[in-house]
Structures are given as C-alpha cells and as structure tokens.
Structure to design on (194 residues):
C-alpha cells in the first residue's frame, strides 16, 4: 500500500497561510545552501504529487513558466514532469502537464489511490486538503517545516478544524541555518509498523 505524505510549510503558531491566503512569510528567509540542497533532494526523491485546487492553481501558474525554468531549472523540471493529482469539487479540467483531476470528495479518491500499486503520494501545501485528510485518518506521515514566523489571528491553522485530536510520534528532525525546522511525524497507531 502506498503511503500518503503531507509536506507543509507552517508558521511557528501552526498556520499554513494568512487569512487572506498570503504565503509571503514562507519566502522571507535568507538564502541557505543547506536548505536549498534539501529542497532539491526532496524534489528528486520521487513520488506522485497531490494538490488541493487552490495550491494546484498557484503551482500551475508558476512552474511551467520560463521564469521558473530560469530561476530554478531543476526544480521546475521535476515539478512539470512528475505525475500529479488535483482534488477538487469545482475544477472542470486539469491543464498542467501530467495532472489527473480527482473530482468530488477527496478522502475516498485518495484512499483508493493508496491501494493502487505505485510510488508514495505527496501532498504539497494544500492546507485545507491536509486538514480534511488528517480528520479522515488517511495521512501516514507529516513532514512539517516550521518557519520562525508567527501570524496569530492573521493565520489559518493547519489543524484548527479537527474535531478530535491526533497522537503523533516524532520520527525525524532537522534544523537549517535559515531558521527553518523540519519535524516529521507519524500517527501513533501506524508508528509501530509491521
């Protein structure tokens, strides 16, 4: 069975975006060669990408452009060629290269995808989708990059909509020179493994 991994950039107070959708806080860090190498390695690690509609439209408006290819050529190449899924109730077609549209409720569609053979499924951003799938117990690993920024009431908390808590186990951590902190967690009920 494939694993469903959520990769999220978060603020120190657990927000995935500003209340107005702003993500500028995630790009305010100084350049860090170690962080850049990590991002590139993550892009090279394989897997099929999963997005919610809002993140998909943001990514699809950037990565296929000549500017993306000029500024981050290897990352742009990976993003454009890797298989992708977009979960949406309102989108009518997926126009970005190698993208399959998953219409309707995301949880049953992704649960079915997890049972199919193939590589891991990696959700990038897509805070509302991650929150819904966390509620359904479908996420196997959370890779959370904590940025040293707090948004307070101006932010959308990733786990704010959960109606029950989650018990997680830390499996990995890493500090970067730009102040970012990677924290990887697995749900306790899955952490013990076979």
């Amino acid at each position: 069975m494939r694993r469903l991994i959520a990769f999220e950039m978060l603020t120190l107070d657990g927000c995935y975006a500003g209340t107005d959708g702003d993500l500028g806080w995630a790009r305010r860090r100084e350049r860090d060669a170690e962080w850049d190498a990590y991002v590139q390695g993550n892009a090279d690690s394989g897997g099929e990408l999963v997005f919610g509609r809002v993140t998909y439209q943001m990514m699809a408006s950037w990565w296929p452009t000549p500017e993306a290819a000029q500024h981050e050529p290897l990352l742009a190449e990976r993003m454009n060629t890797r298989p992708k899924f977009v979960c949406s109730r309102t989108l009518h077609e997926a126009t970005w290269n190698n993208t399959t549209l998953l219409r309707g409720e995301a949880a049953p569609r992704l649960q079915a995808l997890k049972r199919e053979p193939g590589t891991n499924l990696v959700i990038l951003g897509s805070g509302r989708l991650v929150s819904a799938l966390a509620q359904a117990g479908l996420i196997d690993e959370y890779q959370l990059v904590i940025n040293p920024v707090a948004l307070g009431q101006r932010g959308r908390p990733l786990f704010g909509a959960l109606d029950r808590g989650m018990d997680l186990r830390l499996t990995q951590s890493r500090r970067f020179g730009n102040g970012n902190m990677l924290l990887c967690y697995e749900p306790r009920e899955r952490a013990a493994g076979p």
Q: What stands out?
A: The chain is about 30% helix and 30% strand. The CA atoms of residues 57 and 151 lie 24 Å apart.
